Amino acid sequence: MPEHPEHPEHQNARHSAYEDFVELPPQHPGQANVVCIGWWRGHRVAIRTARQQDGSLNEFYIGARQLFGLHMQVPYHYLNIYAVLRVHSRLEIPKLYSLFPHRPTAYQPTHAFVDGRAATTFDELSVAGAKAYGRHLAAIHSVQVSSAGMVGTPITPTQFHQRLAETIETFASNQAFEMDDKTRQTALDTAQALRGQPPLATEFAPIMLDQDPTQYFLRNGQFTHLIDLDFYVYGPPEQELVALEAQWPERLAGAFVDGYRAIRDFPTLKRVRHTYRVLNRLLCLQGRLPYTTWHDRPVLFP
Q1: Alpha-carbon separation of residue 169 from 46, 124, 162, 189 (angstroms)
Q2: Which domains can be identified in the chain, with CATH numbers?
Q3: Rounded Cα gap, residues 208 and 211, in angstroms
Q4: Superkingdom, according to UniProt (predicted)?
Q5: What is the pLDDT of residues 168-227, one digit of tens each?
Q6: Which of 4, 50, 67, 165 has the least C-beta neighbours within 10 A?
Q7: Euclidean distance between CA atoms 8 and 177, whole angstroms
Q8: Mind listing the pLDDT tens digit for each residue in 81-102?
Q9: Could you tell me which residues come within 8 angstroms of residue 91 by beta carbon, excluding any fewer than 6 positions away?
Q10: Model confidence, pTM
Q11: How many CB atoms neighbour CB 243 within 10 A?
């Protein structure tokens, strides 16, 4: 038996029964996971467990699955995305200890616990913080691959383009999905236009589908940690940038772009902005917004 009491196999190693873990309050409405903290094999950890959904995220889950083939609780994909991000992220990512910490059938990503505060808005960043975040995102977008989707289930550019048109049309044609008439008609028109175009995206990179400031810890105007990997897939960097633009403060736009360009060329969004704004609205990334709110946002990025 190991002698050190904090060794994972020591009989007195600190190890909380799962029912003794403490649940943290949600960082934002509709959070996909319950996050609990406790001790596991001598390590202070945060365990994420899929939350029973109330229907508020239906559009997001349905769209992510239809477009990217994204299924939750696929260990192979999570492990590979974690490995890629640990190498290329400019932000710290808490160490992954286990995906099945208590039972071999209970998928619960278990990372080292990091004491910190999640951001609530991108406006909390300083100018230097915005530049640093631009460098971070550009470094991840530099991981270029030729197919979209999950690790192990590649989607070619042509297939992705077809799925993009089909996903937008499916949402717009289904009256069960809430949207105003102008949003619905715009989505139908967009889907129809896509069918006659060549693929919008031919190169893909890791992107966060649920891009939001609460996915990051913040200190002194800078993001320090990336704390949520659940909805990373391989997709068009432009899609993530359009989603980010919808939340980004105008005063920090130039700093972010400058930071991004320090690593790689900034993608030209003009050709794809409308399509990805439509898609992000249908996925309800910021809720079920009326047409003028999502469509008429200012253009902040090139």
Answers
A1: 39, 37, 11, 9
A2: 58-94+115-295 (3.90.1200.10)
A3: 5
A4: Bacteria
A5: 999 999 999 999 999 999 999 999 999 989 999 999 999 999 999 999 999 999 999 999
A6: 4
A7: 49
A8: 999 999 999 999 999 999 999 8
A9: 136, 216, 223, 224, 225, 226
A10: 0.90
A11: 23
Q: Which amino acid, one-letter code, is at 70?
A: L
Polymer length of the chain: 302
